[in-house]
């Protein structure tokens, strides 16, 4: 279980890092999305793997240690929304840069060969 | 004289630095004395400059004959500076000497201190002597711009008063300055006032001997250096060091040469090296502590292998790698694979007992995909050129290097995640939230309670960021100029339009309408359903998975579906969304819900909750956090719709086609509706 998740996080990270190092803007935006999946999963995994753990609390407090860790979840919820916002912003910058610079290279100009 | 001020300020700092009550008193006393004699000396210098036209000590001499009163004043003040008995400078200097002898911490500096201060005092005597001797005595001055004479009375009076103060404080300290000094010292020291006495004569003490040595030494130094000083600019040895030049040199070296060297050797304007560096630094930063502390990959909480979860991640890994491969030439394929990887992530969240996160992930995934699809319209196709099969060596090398970095990063994070997941869980601060979510926040969904209550301020900041981003996207797109290749209508639309125009019974755009007819009908019917789901998610958020974010994005999806199915023109003829007002309302409501707590005397964003019995709906939580969540909801709807519609509107604009007089551009009409 942990191993599958760890391999998954690793694959998402590797693909993401590979893409953000590519020279084309679209590759970078996709790479950032993949990286954000990896990081979000990583953060939730920091609350330890608990399958089927209670998420909602009963009105009388039971054993808090059996509960799924809510803190990383709240953090990741925020991170998802923020990464949506940055993706949108980056997309528009990407489009504007493509229109202005006539190239989709990340530096706004083709590298000198 | 300015340099002597620096030396006296050094003396005061040293006294304060000795950190004894007596030292503080002496420091305060010397501040007062220094102010008195130095002010009168500066006034004397001003008088001399005014009357002779120069302040150059090498050109002045023999002024005694011309201005005896000024000369007397300056002499008394200089004597006070040198620490001659019967003047105020003597008293504080003696206290200073006494302190350097009394205070001990047995360091080398401490033992040398009495000798160092005696030496410093020697130089004080020497420069005071030089000032008096060179300016007022000797042959009559030659070649002065003006013939000197005594200044008018009013010009002399301030200096006279100050010198008088030097004298009477020096002669009778206990009668004059003691009460003032006492007040000042009490203000600094508070209750820790030591016993001290301001007296002229303490008997033959070491400090008196030090004073005598300094006087005699100063005289000697002056006599020895006199001829040198008359012929040279600046002091011996030290005079070769030019402070201004050093300052300039340091400034130029640091701010220009070093900066330029760093910029040329380490800096780059290119993004890729920067990101490579970033990835490298992140890797090393994670590796170092692990290397130091060790890492264990087998822990107590090992869980058995889950086949379905494993298969899920086979798909996930495949999609991630596929995305990486396809992102260059097949963007739509990459987008589909990215979406699938997102879905796998989402399912994993469900597996990891995080339903709230999974809900948010799936709706955000949806709008992100729509957003990127809309953006693809303006990104010209990149077609693989049938060039030489082998890339040049430099590019191959780049790829190998980047591949290694990516592999290392992936391996590193996977190892770290595996190790961390197997550590025993100590629950740290999460426990507090679980235990207090219901009693203090009034909700059973701990994640939501954290977002709208415990960490409400963060959420307020976050939705503000979202609003700012949405407005930035909108503003950037107003002046958007797409790539020239993207301006003509897409090929597919072109074919459809040609088909429509070829048939007399069809209108332009009919094919697109027909293709989407079923979908459009369904999406139209779904609109109220999605709306209800959104409100349901919003209301139950405090107790069950849901909340303002999810609900807001779900609502935005309802709007954007209509745009996709029927086209921008059709929707906006029937529906006025006005996203900016949604955003404004949301931000104000969230702020108001927080500020309402202040009215009742609680800190900002303190929430209040109760349960109300409503007909039909039953028990409904009416926490003030719900108001806050409605604000979040409204803002998220507005921001998401604004961004998506702003991109969608680009298709309505006509680029490079000049408008005729009186004709309104279609985009202007569209823009007004947004606001």
TrEMBL record, chain A:
Gene Ontology cellular-component terms listed: plasma membrane
Membrane topology label: Multi-pass membrane protein
InterPro entries: CPA3_antiporter_subunitC, NUOK/Mnh_C1-like
Keywords of the record: Cell membrane, Membrane, Transmembrane, Transmembrane helix
A Pfam entry, by short name: Oxidored_q2
Subcellular location: Cell membrane
Residue spans crossing the bilayer: 6-21, 28-46, 74-96
Entry's family note: Belongs to the CPA3 antiporters (TC 2.A.63) subunit C family.
Protein name: Na+/H+ antiporter subunit C
Species this chain originates from: Bradyrhizobium canariense
């Amino acid at each position: 279980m942990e191993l599958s998740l760890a391999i998954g996080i690793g694959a998402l990270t590797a693909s993401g890092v590979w893409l953000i190092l590519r020279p084309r803007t679209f590759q970078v935006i996709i790479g950032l999305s993949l990286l954000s999946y990896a990081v979000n999963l990583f953060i939730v995994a920091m609350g330890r793997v608990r399958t089927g753990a209670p998420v909602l609390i009963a009105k009388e407090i039971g054993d808090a240690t059996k509960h799924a860790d809510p803190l990383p979840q709240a953090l990741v919820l925020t991170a998802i929304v923020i990464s949506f916002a940055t993706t949108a912003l980056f997309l528009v910058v990407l489009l504007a840069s493509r229109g202005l610079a006539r190239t989709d290279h990340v530096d706004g100009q083709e590298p000198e060969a | 004289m300015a340099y002597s001020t620096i030396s006296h300020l050094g003396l005061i700092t040293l006294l304060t630095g000795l950190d004894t009550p007596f030292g503080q008193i002496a420091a305060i006393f010397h501040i007062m004395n220094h102010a008195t004699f130095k002010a009168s000396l500066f006034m004397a210098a001003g008088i001399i400059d005014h009357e002779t036209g120069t302040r150059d000590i090498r050109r002045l001499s023999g002024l005694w004959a011309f201005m005896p009163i000024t000369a007397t004043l300056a002499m008394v003040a200089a004597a006070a500076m040198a620490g001659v008995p019967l003047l105020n400078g003597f008293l504080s200097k003696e206290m200073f000497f006494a302190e350097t002898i009394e205070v001990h911490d047995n360091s080398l500096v401490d033992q040398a201190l009495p000798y160092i201060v005696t030496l410093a005092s020697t130089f004080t005597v020497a420069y005071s002597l030089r000032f008096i001797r060179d300016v007022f005595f000797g042959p009559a001055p030659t070649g002065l711009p003006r013939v000197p004479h005594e200044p008018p009375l009013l010009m002399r009076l301030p200096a006279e008063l100050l010198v008088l103060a030097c004298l009477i404080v020096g002669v009778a300290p206990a009668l004059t300055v003691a009460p003032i000094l006492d007040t000042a010292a009490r203000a600094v020291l508070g209750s820790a006032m030591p016993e001290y006495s301001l007296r002229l004569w303490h008997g033959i003490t070491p400090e008196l001997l030090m004073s005598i040595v300094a006087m005699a030494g100063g005289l000697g130094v002056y006599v020895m250096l006199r001829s040198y000083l008359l012929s040279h600019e600046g002091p011996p040895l030290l005079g070769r060091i030019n402070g201004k030049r050093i300052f300039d040199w340091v400034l130029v070296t640091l701010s220009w040469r070093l900066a330029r060297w760093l910029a040329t050797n380490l800096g780059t304007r290119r993004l890729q090296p920067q990101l490579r560096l970033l990835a490298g630094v992140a890797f090393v930063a994670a590796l170092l502590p692990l290397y130091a502390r060790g890492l264990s990959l087998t822990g107590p909480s090992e869980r058995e292998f889950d086949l379905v979860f494993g298969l899920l991640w086979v798909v996930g890994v495949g999609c991630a790698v596929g995305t990486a491969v396809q992102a260059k030439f097949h963007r739509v394929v990459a987008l589909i694979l990215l979406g699938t990887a997102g879905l796998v992530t989402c399912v994993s969240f469900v597996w990891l007992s995080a339903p709230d996160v999974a809900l948010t992930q799936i709706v955000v995934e949806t709008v992100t995909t729509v957003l990127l699809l809309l953006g693809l319209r303006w990104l010209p196709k990149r077609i693989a050129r049938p060039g030489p099969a082998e890339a040049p060596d430099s590019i191959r090398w780049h790829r190998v290097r980047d591949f290694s970095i990516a592999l290392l990063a992936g391996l590193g994070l996977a190892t770290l995640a595996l190790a961390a997941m197997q550590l025993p869980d100590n629950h740290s601060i999460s426990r507090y939230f679980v235990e207090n979510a219901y009693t203090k926040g009034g909700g059973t969904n701990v994640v939501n309670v954290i977002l709208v209550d415990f960490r409400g301020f963060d959420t307020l900041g976050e939705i503000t960021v979202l609003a700012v981003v949405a407005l930035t996207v909108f503003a950037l797109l107003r002046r958007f100029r797409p790539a020239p290749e993207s301006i003509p209508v897409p090929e597919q639309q072109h074919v459809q339009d040609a088909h429509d125009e070829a048939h007399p019974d069809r209108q332009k755009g009919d094919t697109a309408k027909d293709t989407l007819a079923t979908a459009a009908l369904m999406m139209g019917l779904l609109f109220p359903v999605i709306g209800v789901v959104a409100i349901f998610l919003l209301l139950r958020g405090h107790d069950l998975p849901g909340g303002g974010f999810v609900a807001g994005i779900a609502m935005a999806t309802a709007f954007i579906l209509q745009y996709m199915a029927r086209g921008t023109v059709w929707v906006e003829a029937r529906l006025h969304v006005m996203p900016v007002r949604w955003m404004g309302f949301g931000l104000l409501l969230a702020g108001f819900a927080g500020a309402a707590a202040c009215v009742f005397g609680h800190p900002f964003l303190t929430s209040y909750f109760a349960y109300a019995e409503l007909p039909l709906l039953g028990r409904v939580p009416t926490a003030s956090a719900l108001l806050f969540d409605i604000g979040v909801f409204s803002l998220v709807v507005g921001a998401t719709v604004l961004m998506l519609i702003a991109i969608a509107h680009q298709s309505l604009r006509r680029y490079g086609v000049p408008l005729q007089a009186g004709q309104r551009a279609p985009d202007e009409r569209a823009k007004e509706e947004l606001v």
